[in-house]
Design brief:
This protein is mainly alpha-helical. It has one domain. 75% of the residues lie in helices and 0% in strands. The radius of gyration is 35 Å and the shape is elongated.
Length: 317
């Protein structure tokens, strides 16, 4: 357990760091969205080669055509090289900002409770690895596409080399990129589980962060789903600014873990509140009845008139 002085120093340090990281977090979310828009627009009209088009030369008896059906695809990439590089660069900046924010959340969580030791190296290697490898992959792709467009070999082997689907360079970059994305996904999921248990982020924001980590895997990277990491970065940046709608979670100012109650705990609290309210109401009702009874008992009943006496008085009159 940390001493009160250490907690106070840590809270003061985190307040300064939060103010510095808030703007990069929001900017990272905006850049991530902008990069997705640029890349989607650049690849919108990318020539697609279907199965029939790919097999057409073989059906005509040409096993190795001079010009591959996928040659227009490489020329298109060469023609839109600037936009592809710009979009990938913005993505790298956004992922770098995300990595810095995750490292800060990991440190804040580790101060309040025990966290998974492997989460930090996974986030560090995975985050900066994804940012760097994606950028390197795009640069190599653009260079190879330019060599293809300006050369005289348009065969299938030349296309595969230009698109980095064959050769040692393309295979190595593909495997390293996959491992980096997997490390980032696991590290971000572990970070979000820690923030949820420490109470540093709202439960819904931690769940959104878990989904964002999964979306960095290659088979989840659709343009529409990129809105989720964007929203998570912007919402986390607003929280770091101290401008969250519901205020800061108590764990930040307390300097200790204040975990959010689980669904079972919330249900138990509601049932306890209902049970306490019912017993209290019953107590109030019984008290009211007893007080009314006591009040009625303190008042003497009115005397009952005698009917015979009243008739004799009438006769005398």
């Amino acid at each position: 357990m940390a001493s009160p002085t250490e907690i106070q120093e840590r809270v003061s340090f985190e307040s300064e760091r939060r103010a510095r990281l808030a703007v990069p977090a929001v900017a990272g979310g905006v850049l991530y969205l902008l990069s997705g828009i640029i890349l989607s627009a650049a690849l919108k009209e990318l020539p697609a080669v279907g199965v029939v088009q790919g097999l057409e030369p073989a059906l005509r008896g040409r096993a190795a055509p001079v010009v591959s059906p996928r040659a227009p695809e490489v020329r298109y990439i060469n023609h839109h090289a600037f936009y592809l590089l710009a979009g990938t660069l913005l993505t790298a900046l956004a992922v770098s900002a995300l990595t810095v924010v995750l490292l800060f959340l990991l440190d804040a969580t580790a101060f309040r409770r025990h966290s998974w030791p492997a989460a930090r190296p996974l986030v560090l290697v995975g985050g900066f690895g994804v940012a760097l490898l994606n950028l390197v992959h795009e640069v190599v792709l653009v260079i190879e596409a330019h060599k293809f467009a300006s050369g005289g070999d348009f065969s299938g082997k030349a296309v595969e080399k230009a698109l980095l689907t064959s050769g040692s360079v393309g295979i190595v970059l593909g495997l390293l990129g996959l491992f980096a994305a997997l490390a980032l996904a696991i590290g971000m999921i572990a970070t979000m589980m820690g923030t949820m248990r420490a109470g540093l982020l709202a439960r819904w924001l931690s769940v959104l962060g878990i989904l964002s980590g999964l979306l960095f895997l290659p088979f989840f990277g659709t343009p529409t789903l990129q809105l989720i990491p964007t929203f998570w970065l912007v919402a986390t940046g607003i929280l770091l600014m101290g401008r969250f709608p519901n205020g800061d979670p108590p764990a930040w100012a307390a300097g200790e873990a204040r975990p959010w109650p689980t669904q079972a705990e919330q249900r138990a609290q509601r049932e306890a509140a209902k049970g306490g309210g019912g017993s209290a109401a019953r107590g109030k009702g019984s008290g009211k009845e007893s007080s009314n009874g006591a009040a009625l008992g303190d008042v003497a009943p009115e005397p009952t008139p005698v009917s015979g006496g009243s008739r004799r008085k009438r006769r005398k009159r």
